[in-house]
Amino acid sequence: MIRLPDERHETRAADPLRVAILGCGNVGAEVARRLLEREDVRLTRVLVRDVHRPRPVGRALLTRSIEELLDSQPDAIIELLGGVEPARCHVEAAVRRGVHVVTANKSIIARHGQALHDLAARCGARLLCEASVGAGTPILAALDQLRGDRITAIRGIVNGTCNFILTRMETAGCTLDEALREAQRLGYAEPDPTADLTGRDSAEKLCVLAQRAGWGWIHPDAVKVQGITTITAEDVRSARRQRCVIRLIAEAERHTDGAVRLCVGPCFVPVAHGLASVTGCGNAFEIEAQLAGRIHLQGPGAGPRCTASAVISDLLALASPRREAAPKAHASPRRAATSRTTALRRHYIRADATTGGPDPGALLHCIERSGINVDSLELRPGRAVLHTMPVTFDAASGLAESLAEGEPDRCLVAPLVE
């Protein structure tokens, strides 16, 4: 009979993992509380801006100095500052000393991940980032598991703030501004929600997903992004009449010629589709792989507890002698991306006139000139609403901007997800 080692005995016998935390906001505080309960982890320092604010750790552990934190000789740091700077500099300083890093920061991974992974490999450190996309939903782990397959597409709802706002607009019939204020009151939206509402947050997460799928490093600036800022209550009602809901969808696809196409934007999702059932701050992902077929993952996409789950799992993976913490960083060339898919889809277009109501003759002439076949057209005071037959997103966008007299903020283009 083969006896497996007693994991609990090994954990007690081993020296505790020395860990420092960068940031002690909502997520950092939750992580700190959970780590203080563990016998196999010892907190060495916690980096904060204000050492006088109440924290879940003792005052002696708090510091404002990254040098003092690193001098406490942690085996690993957990970066929960968010944003690009000073987070990137602090992570770089840590890996240069051979200190492992666990981060929930999608911005530094999307924008500087290649350089940081390469530096970590040279310095004998590891950089783990499961919590950077999907919070507690293990989407990056799923992509790692499929690295023996050929992943052809990834699609999903990756921003919990926008999903909460769109859900509230559906269920409560409120405006976007009203739903945003509620999200901020409940702590689901930042005081400055620009990155979420414009789709920039989703674009960064999409680039992390594309990289983990093995498609190379793609900068977020290469992603064509349309946020939810122009969505109105009338758009939500129009979707309902089509038996659809509106969701902010991030899509990445890799074609047989190697071309990678990335986009983020609001879509009409039929109520029978799996993504339509994702409400509140939920995240959901669809992965298409050549051998495994279509895989669905769904779970909470925001919040301290679920993010802490992913962070601590990465941390313990570093400490486990029987388990590789994450796939080793491999040479991934920086790749150019085509920003929008060339797929033909039906589109919802809502265009507001800049002055007065739309002129029917001019509007029909504009549609005829575009060469786009329209399934339905409705003129309302100050705006035109139409549904196209299958067409590319770029063609639909061009028509919408023409109808809105060249002002993209006055129109909405939403593909129909099939």
Write up what this structure looks like.
This protein is α/β, with parallel strands linked by helices and 418 residues long. It folds into 3 domains: 7-128, NAD(P)-binding Rossmann-like Domain (Rossmann fold), CATH 3.40.50; 139-301, Dihydrodipicolinate Reductase, domain 2 (2-Layer Sandwich); 347-415, Alpha-Beta Plaits, CATH 3.30.70. It is built from 14 helices and 16 strands. Strands 3-2-1-4-5-6 form a 6-stranded parallel beta sheet, sandwiched between helices. The protein has a 6-stranded mixed beta sheet with strand order 8-10-9-7-11-12. Strands 14-15-13-16 form a 4-stranded antiparallel beta sheet, covered by helices on one side. Helix 4 packs parallel to helix 5 (106-123). The longest helix has 18 residues, at 106-123. The protein is elongated, with a radius of gyration of 24 Å.
Shape: elongated
CATH architectural name of the largest domain: 2-Layer Sandwich
Number of helices: 14
Output the helix-strand order.
HEHEEHEHEHEHEHHHHEHEEEEHEHEEHE
Structural class: alpha/beta
* Low-pLDDT residue intervals, each spanning 5 or more residues: 1-13, 322-331
Q: Major sheet: order of its strands?
A: 3-2-1-4-5-6
Rg estimate, integer Å: 24 Å
CATH superfamily of the largest domain: Dihydrodipicolinate Reductase, domain 2
**What is the domain tally?**
3
Average pLDDT confidence is 87
Just give the CATH class of the largest domain: Alpha Beta
Number of strands: 16
Strand percentage: 15-25%
Report the end-to-end length measured between terminal Cα atoms. 53 Å
For the biggest sheet, the summary is:
6 strands, parallel
Helix content: 25-40%
CATH topological fold name of the largest domain: Dihydrodipicolinate Reductase, domain 2
